[in-house]
Fold this sequence. Notes:
Elements: H1 10-21, H2 25-38, E1 43-49, E2 55-60, H3 67-72, H4 100-106, E3 109-115, E4 122-128, E5 131-138, E6 143-149, H5 156-161, H6 165-182, E7 187-191, E8 196-199, H7 204-212, H8 215-219, E9 220-226, E10 230-237, E11 249-253, E12 256-258, H9 261-270, E13 283-289, E14 294-295, E15 306-307, H10 310-328, H11 369-373, H12 375-383, E16 442-444, E17 448-453, E18 456-461, H13 462-475, E19 486-495, H14 498-513, E20 517-521, E21 524-530, H15 539-554, H16 562-581, H17 591-601, E22 617-620, H18 622-628
Parallel strand pairs: 1-7, 11-13
Antiparallel strand pairs: 1-2, 2-6, 3-4, 3-6, 4-5, 7-8, 9-10, 10-13, 11-12, 14-15, 16-17, 17-18, 18-22, 19-21, 20-21
Helix pairs in contact: 1-4, 2-6, 6-7, 6-14, 9-10, 13-16, 13-17, 14-15, 15-16
Bound molecules: adenosine-5'-diphosphate (ADP) and magnesium ion.
Amino acid sequence: MGDIIQLLPDSVANQIAAGEVIQRPASVIKELVENSVDAGADDIRIYIRDAGRTLIQVIDNGSGMTDTDARMAFERHATSKIRNASDLFSLHTMGFRGEALPSICAISHVEVRSRKAGSTMGTKLIINGSRVESQTPDLCDEGTNIMVKDLFFNVPARRKFLKSDKVELSNIMREFERLALVNPGLKMSIDTGGKTVELRKGSFHQRISDLWKGSLGSQLIPVEAETPEVKISGFITRPEFARRHNPLQYFFVNGRNMRHPYFHKAVTNCFNGLLAPDTMPCYFIKFDVNPSKIDVNIHPTKNEIKFEEEMLIWSILSAAVKGSLGKYSAVPSIDFTAETLPVEPVKTTGTQELPRIEIPADYNPFADAVSRQSRPQQDNYRATNRVPRNWETLYEGFLENPTSGVQSDGSNGNFGTVFEPGQKAPELPIDTPLSSTPGISIQYANKYIISCDSRGMLIIDQHRAHVKILFERLIQCFERTNPLSQQLLFPEPLHLSPAQEDALNETKDILRQLGLKISGKDGEYEITGVPPEFEDKSPVGIIQNVLDSVMEDSVNYGNETPEAIRARLQTAVTLSMARSMAIRKGRKLNEEEMESILAELFSLPDPALTPSGRRVFAIMDEGAIRRLLP
Ligand code: ADP
Ligand code: MG
């Protein structure tokens, strides 16, 4: 039998390597911009068309390449940056494996123009799928200008794997944000066809403020530490500006973006007890370490990095973050040994507004099971917004037989299943009939409303209950022809990051239908109208949360139909808005607030589950209590 093993042709090997290095248009931008930075450029311009599918162009004013270097650059393992394996461990530059350009040219049409500083003539090189088509002298500017066209033209599987333009564009913008953060000293711009972002040279703080416009800059406090092992510098957000969704969290080591779950924990642990529930701090932290003490080569796209002295750096980082929280935070003095700290910033002015629920005087949500099922009455109910002072009368006629629901077998008549302590609670039927009224309510642990009805003791998650209520109110908006909107007396400025701006464009119609009026452009917007449900809540935080969560979600939009995407977006936006507005865990509630939550919750057709399917309340019946007290 003949020999069957052959060496792969370079073009094939390059295509395979490309799979590792180049996953999407954003990866091309990363590699090209890093090369420009390595070439000493201080002005880098990026042009994108069709989310990078048809064109990615990077123009720099760096060192440029000679004719021969330009040609060599596209050969496999060709690099000017390392000479031997030990160089791998002492790298200060970005790229280091000589793989990027050959990978890119294997899967696209590439056109390069480059001129070395001081040379009279530059060179122009055309390469199609690894094949050099031509090289000619060219009168180009000093520096390098690379055009990458028709990405993945010869790898249909890859092309198919690309997400929608919106998603790829948002990946590109996030890559741009990372690159811009690493290089605040460089002038950078990106033009995506629809919009342009231009960034001036400046400090790290200025770059962050320029990227995310406006308020973020003033929410940051510096973090600094310097020891022989590591220099740490950067910023964290004050705890009160922590976000619910998509917090901006960045680590950089020696000028390279990295992921580091362990250090992430170190930072977030410092915020323990300082954050409102479900919020996460932003951080932008740079590490400078001796390059020989890290291994950058453990991940093909080079963003997971191994530190030799991880434990030590952990404690230095942790001390630095705690130090600046103590020094700069709005909280006057922080006892880091304390287990818990107040989670809600203390409101100094004004009295707490009660959630208002309005019910027509003649409407009794519990009148009878049949009419409760009927939709028109529900709508009637939700269209209004206030609990009458005499809300108790709603429950009249339901108090005669307080134990009627409990059966002799210890289960409960309407419910069948009850919560067993120490055992996973069984699924609740979605449409839980309310057999009688909840009685007096108390709050437990500032998180739960405890009440009783004929089924037993109700333990209601206050946050989930309120999310459910708000979601049901807001979702009604999509049935209206004219959205209800409250004009703001003073428009609120809204600064958006490029990625948030993409999310805004994607959800404009939905937000309008919900009653939000937002106008502006280029990252600077203002809110002029809000849904009545916002009451006196600050709309800026809510909208930013919503946009951040849309960005998170959009990553999953694969091959769905436009209608399916729209329906999903609609639910996602509404749910995220309800979550942002809802009463949080940790908020003390007064009696009236608890009552109005219960009244509205139990008037809904399916109070048992949140829109995302989580349990709103549990029931502990007499049998369960008896088992607890045998
Ligand atoms: P690496 O960056 O790992 O060396 P690349 O394939 O990205 O590998 O680049 C190969 C070589 O091409 C680089 O080492 C550099 O010498 C040259 N090069 C690439 N881009 C530029 C640029 N924009 N300006 C000057 N030289 C460049
Ligand atoms: Mg490179």
